Q: What sequence folds into this?
């Protein structure tokens, strides 16, 4: 039997997932990680590459041990990761600085760029589909201003999934689907947009080679084999951004297909055959991992992390019961919440807003409209309201995409950890009013990455053959149209509540859950 190993470096954890060539998940190892905040720099979210490399080694050894697979039978390896996070290297190839995806320390630099180079952000958005909000330009400028010694040493830059592949193969490179999220990428050419760093007073020499997903870039060397337990000579293959790879793993490799990826963040991805941009700058546009396709993307902040917070803060009983029974605490919470009526007895959660890329921020985390009756407002109602809220944000974001493309999906593919929840999947179908399909393999970002690794190793002729052979469906949820009509009314009310709460945060009365670097309240 032949196997493929995929690494998935998410916001909250690193996962090593082993598949066979039929797409069956053979083994899985996961370790949660945290990103380091430096008190000197508000908004900082450093990527701890030294400790995280040790976690990656541990995941690798764990999955090999648990599955008893012969490492020689693992024919290829690739990696996916959260987008936007970057790793910088010196001329010797040593990591010298890194940050995670929502690092927001470069707020002053974003403001400076907007004021000093007027229209530059708009030009970059038209070219790259990105704004300064999470881009590399202000982060590099911040480094130059605050850590000049590190900046002067910087010789090259990659994304986080490329860092994993570099640690495994010794080859520095990036792929278009994640590289484009730096904001210094040309969507049409699917390559670096050179010259823009120089315009901002930055050196224009950091660019590493670009390889499309599925390209063999190197192999496992002896030292890495000894550390990880992998076989020397195993092919290392270019991967991609997690949301794009999740769509591949869910079979969305054709125009118009729509995928909702429910993880720490929730992404809504709509495949297009050209790089659309929004005249109002509310959405982002990325290269798909599939050459010749792009994706309009909207993002909901933290639904998965909010649910983890709720579990850890309020659900100790379910966690303990799950530990005793071997069941997932979220399954137990869904059983508890299954009879909660649509609308969760009036609770309005306030966490992520719908997307507004040019003025991206979120109101203070809140639950609004609680009652003091424990029979209608309690743990199960609050849990259910969080599931509904993630779906309502998705509805709002798909409405934004509809404005740009004049198209609303006829069906949605639901992937990621949230899709394991049957109640959550049905809620998404009811809120959106369309069929929701859930693939058999829920770790679709890892599966898509594995499929491209298999293409690189010659296990599949191309990605279309890989998808057709591997992707299977676990469940199909049809919408309850009566519930859908109720949710449309709830959505309108939620928007009113959210706008009022956002205003309070903009006025400084409350604190934004997150705001893009450089955002200035009117």
A:
């Amino acid at each position: 039997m032949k196997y493929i190993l995929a690494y998935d470096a998410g916001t909250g954890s690193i996962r090593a997932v082993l598949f066979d060539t039929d797409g069956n998940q053979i083994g899985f190892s996961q370790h949660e990680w945290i990103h380091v905040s430096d008190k000197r720099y508000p908004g900082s979210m450093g990527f701890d590459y030294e400790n995280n490399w040790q976690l990656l080694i541990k995941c690798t050894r764990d999955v090999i041990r648990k599955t008893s697979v012969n490492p020689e039978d693992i024919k290829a390896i690739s990696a996916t990761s959260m987008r936007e996070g970057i790793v910088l290297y010196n001329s010797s190839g040593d990591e010298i600085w890194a940050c995670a995806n929502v690092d927001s320390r470069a707020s002053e630099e974003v403001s400076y760029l907007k004021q000093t180079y007027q229209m530059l952000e708009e030009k970059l958005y038209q070219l790259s589909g990105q704004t300064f909000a999470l881009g590399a330009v202000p982060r590099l400028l911040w480094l130059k201003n605050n850590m000049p010694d590190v900046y002067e040493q910087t010789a090259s830059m990659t994304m986080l999934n490329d860092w994993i592949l570099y640690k495994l193969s010794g080859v520095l490179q990036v792929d278009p689907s994640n590289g484009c999220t730096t904001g210094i990428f040309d969507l049409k050419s699917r390559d670096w947009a050179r010259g823009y760093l120089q315009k901002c007073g930055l050196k224009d020499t950091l660019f590493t080679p670009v390889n499309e997903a599925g390209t063999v870039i190197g192999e496992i060397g002896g030292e890495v084999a000894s550390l990880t337990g992998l076989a020397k000579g195993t092919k290392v293959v270019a991967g991609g951004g997690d949301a794009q790879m999740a769509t591949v793993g869910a079979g969305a490799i054709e125009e118009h297909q729509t995928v909702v990826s429910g993880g720490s963040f929730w992404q809504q991805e709509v495949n297009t055959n050209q790089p659309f941009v929004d005249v109002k700058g509310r959405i982002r546009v990325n290269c798909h991992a599939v050459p010749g396709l792009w994706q309009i993307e909207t993002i909901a902040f933290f639904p998965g992390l909010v649910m983890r917070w709720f579990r850890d803060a309020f659900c100790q009983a379910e966690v303990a019961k799950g530990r005793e029974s071997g069941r997932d605490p979220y399954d137990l919470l869904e059983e508890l919440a299954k009879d909660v009526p649509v609308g969760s007895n009036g609770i309005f959660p306030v966490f992520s807003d719908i997307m507004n890329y040019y003025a991206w921020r979120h109101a203070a985390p809140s639950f609004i409209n609680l009652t003091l009756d424990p029979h209608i407002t309690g743990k199960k109602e609050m849990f259910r309201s969080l599931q509904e809220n993630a779906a309502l944000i998705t509805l709002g974001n798909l409405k934004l995409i509809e404005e740009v493309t004049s198209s609303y999906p006829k069906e949605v593919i639901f992937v990621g950890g949230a899709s394991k929840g049957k109640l959550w999947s049905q809620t998404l179908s009811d809120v959106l009013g369309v069929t929701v399909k859930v693939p058999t393999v829920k770790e679709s970002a890892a599966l898509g990455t594995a499929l491209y690794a298999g293409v690189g190793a010659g296990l599949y002729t191309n990605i279309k053959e890989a998808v057709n052979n591997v992707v299977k469906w676990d469940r199909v949820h049809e919408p309850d149209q009566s519930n859908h009509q109720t949710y449309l009314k709830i959505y309108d009310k939620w928007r009113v509540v959210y706008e009022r709460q956002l205003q309070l945060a903009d006025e400084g009365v409350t604190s934004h859950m997150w705001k893009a670097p450089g955002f200035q309240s009117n």
Summary: The longest strand covers residues 13-20. The chain has a mean pLDDT of 95.
